[in-house]
Amino acid sequence: MGTLEVVRSYVAAWNLRSPEAVLATFAAGGTYRDPVTVVPCAGEAMAAYLTGLWQSFPDLSFDIVTLADCGGGAAALEWVMRGTNTGPFGALPPTGRVIELAGADFLTTGHGKLRSVAGYFDSGAIPRQLGLQVLVQPETAGPFRFGSSVQVQTGKVQAPGAMGITALQALDETQVGTVREQSRATMTEMMALDGFIGATAGVIGSRMFTVTAWDRPESVAQLLRRGTHAAAMPAFFGGKRACCGFTSVWVPARINPYWVRCDGCGHMVAADSDSHCRCGATVPAHPPYW
Predict the structure, then answer these.
(1) Which domains are seen in the chain, by residue range?
(2) Cα–Cα separations (whole angstroms), residue 8 to 23, 39, 67, 117, 254
(3) pLDDT digits (tens, 9 = 90+) for 203-232
(4) Is the pTM of this model over 0.70?
């Protein structure tokens, strides 16, 4: 089997969506890598990677754009990948969106089998097409550290009467993921709790925090009695999640008026105390405090 025939059989195996078929096109010790795998993988590791892709995009397919024999058993392949996100994408639910990704592979062959495949593509293209944010930022810059955050709002515009602040240092990256999932579940459950206004959670390295807004201090105690938050506490104190952490409830000493700019004259108006600007225009509703 010639070089180009080997490559075509490899693409055909991908389109069968069978890890066994893809692995069968590789020689013993043959490797695959791309911007997602980062390092070369083979065997079970490659099969797991392929299976994950097909779980997210069950109809995944490849079209050959160009294919060239570079001599000496090497080939260059330009392709377009298409698929519909009808399965989970990592920890995220399916979006139903169709993706299209252009890329290129550089392959080496020998004795009718693949020895190596090095793939190149924009690793941020699929997340962007699925409506996900792709952030490029440093981990640190001088005294500053960077991370990510998420917010949930009930739509309530009342001023909070209490704030709950929780912070912990996760043991490792695995526990960061576990705590993230528990935090997401907890914030979902909070939406149904009396007095809950909104929440913001963040991750900076292994440092994790949550700030929640409530109508009064007593409402925060609901988290201790039931739900994901209550169930996660034994793991925290048992040393399975974090090396340290604290919880707290804060009561505002003062909350100033919510200032909103008048659409009529451009002046800032205290929306909490006056529904009309001095120009006579109705003041726009202010957004939630938290």
Answers:
(1) 3-129 (3.10.450.50), 146-250 (3.30.70.100), 256-290 (no CATH)
(2) 14, 24, 9, 13, 69
(3) 999 999 999 999 999 999 999 888 999 999
(4) no
